[in-house]
Design brief:
The protein has 280 residues and is α/β, with parallel strands linked by helices. The protein contains seven helices and eleven strands. The radius of gyration is 18 Å and the shape is globular. The protein starts with a strand and ends in a 17-residue tail after the last strand.
Length: 280
């Protein structure tokens, strides 16, 4: 059985503006307009490498579609969805809620495509169409909470995919989310904090909590210095969890925030995490 792969060129059209990293340009402060940290090249370059290397010939392409309002509402409030829609319809777009998550005209449609892509990839794995999969989607998702976007993330893509699968299959579907990034995936954790069937694990750089967050609900977290070694530790821990609990699937949130791999937990599962970009 093959590995699934999901990407659409529209993800490169998500416009985050001419920031200076994650700060708005500011002549008085000497911040020249350049590009946002979260820009199209973070995903486009990965896709081009997958194609040029020939790896694409060994992957099963999974089609992309927009998530419906009903699907987005499994995780997000109606007011948040309507806020993104209304701003997206304006000439210049807007921000998803924290002044660090800008989007241009048409941003809602692209964000809904990203969430829909995560839904389709997870469904392909659960249906047995592919053994595991890699969804290279944008905008990212793991900082978005129920009522607003945050940290470049408009909708919580992985959370939507999991919630839709639980609604369509069984609320008792058991899932592990391994969030692997510089920052803590506060949004995904907060959404499933009270769900006993969804376990969230974090691998993050020491001291790199998002917005000063040291655990969304104040819990003590293990700080991770070496993410690659920690990922191996996570994989070993997940194998042990498989033998103890009846867990259906695992979601990996990759360093690019919007990319992710979904896989049933099997000892020989091949999750293509080596496709991540290097940070400059």
């Amino acid at each position: 059985m093959s590995t699934g792969y999901l990407y659409h060129e529209i993800f490169g059209w998500h416009d985050t503006g001419t920031f200076t990293g994650d700060l708005p340009s500011n002549p008085e402060a000497g911040l020249q307009p350049y590009m946002n940290y979260e820009n199209a090249d973070t995903k486009r370059r990965i896709h081009e490498l997958i194609v040029v290397s020939g790896l694409i010939n060994h992957l099963e392409r999974i089609p992309v579609r927009k998530a419906t309002d009903s699907e987005l509402e499994t995780v997000h409030t109606k007011s948040h969805i309507e806020n993104i829609k209304s701003q997206s319809a304006t000439r210049l777009g807007g921000d998803a809620g924290d002044l660090t998550t800008p989007f241009a005209h048409g941003g809602y449609e692209i964000a809904a495509m990203a969430a829909g892509g995560a839904i389709e990839m997870f469904d392909a794995v659960l249906n047995g169409k592919v053994k595991n999969g890699y969804a290279l989607i944008r905008p990212p998702g793991h900082h978005a909470v129920r009522e607003r976007g945050m940290g470049y993330c408009i909708f919580s893509n992985l959370a939507v995919a999991i919630a839709v699968a639980k609604r369509n299959r069984s609320n008792n579907l058991r899932v592990v989310v391994v969030d692997w990034d510089v920052h803590h995936g506060n949004g995904t954790e907060s959404i499933f904090i009270d769900d006993p069937n969804v376990l969230t694990r974090k691998a993050m750089r020491e001291g790199s909590s998002y917005l000063g967050d040291q655990g969304y609900y104040g819990e003590q977290r293990d700080a991770i210095v070496n993410q690659l070694n920690q990922l191996e530790a996570h994989q070993n821990a997940l194998k042990q969890l498989q033998s103890k609990y009846n867990i259906g699937s695992t979601f990996f949130g990759a360093p690019t925030k919007s990319a992710g791999a979904a896989s049933p937990i099997t000892p020989d599962a091949s999750i293509p995490m080596n496709l991540r970009p290097r940070r400059r």
